[in-house]
Amino acid sequence: MSKYVPMISSGTAGPLGALHLPRLWQKVSLEAAGKLADGYPGIGGGYDSMVIAALGLNAAAVKEFISKSKPTYPQFEGWIKKQPGAKLDKATIHKSNVAIAGYIHADETRKGILGANGLSDDGSVLSDAVNLNNLDDWFEFHAAVLK
């Protein structure tokens, strides 16, 4: 069975406008199918937890719904809209998006990702976590699939 590196960026939003939500759906969906690449959590402590908390969702309920229902992405957003306590107003989504877009990795993480990709840590590469995570995913995808 093949395992997949999630390739939807945390900088991607679906129809609700919430950054990272499509990636969360993809990771949990892959995990439920036993196809998530090693080293990737279905729901982790970073962006996953940030967007779940910001939108007023329950992580266990998100995981259970995706695992049992295997929804398309629009079906997942439809389920979110029906959740009691879900916070989907523009101000909440904007605040979550700003937090995601503005998150900066620790120096050690940044240096590790740049070094693995053969890039200098000289400030010439966008160093926000979304862009660094993209580089990390592309590196892992190349190693797992193309090399």
Record keyword descriptors for this entry:
about 150 residues; mainly alpha
User: Which percent bin holds the helix content?
Assistant: 40-55%
Class computed from helices, strands and strand pairing: mainly alpha
Instruction: State the order of secondary-structure elements, H for helix, E for strand.
Output: HHHHHHH
Beta-sheet strand percentage?
under 5%
Largest sheet: none
Shape: globular
Compact overview of the structure:
The chain is mostly helical. It has 2 domains: 1-103, no CATH class; 104-147, no CATH class. It has helices at 21-32, 47-54, 59-69, 73-81, 90-101, 107-116, 129-146.
Description:
The protein has 147 residues and is mainly alpha-helical. It has two domains: 1-103, no CATH class; 104-147, no CATH class. Helix content is 54%, strand content 0%. The protein has seven helices and no strands. It has helices at 21-32, 47-54, 59-69, 73-81, 90-101, 107-116, 129-146. Helix 6 runs parallel beside helix 7. The mean pLDDT is 96.
Strand and helix layout:
Elements: H1 21-32, H2 47-54, H3 59-69, H4 73-81, H5 90-101, H6 107-116, H7 129-146
Helix pairs in contact: 1-3, 2-5, 6-7
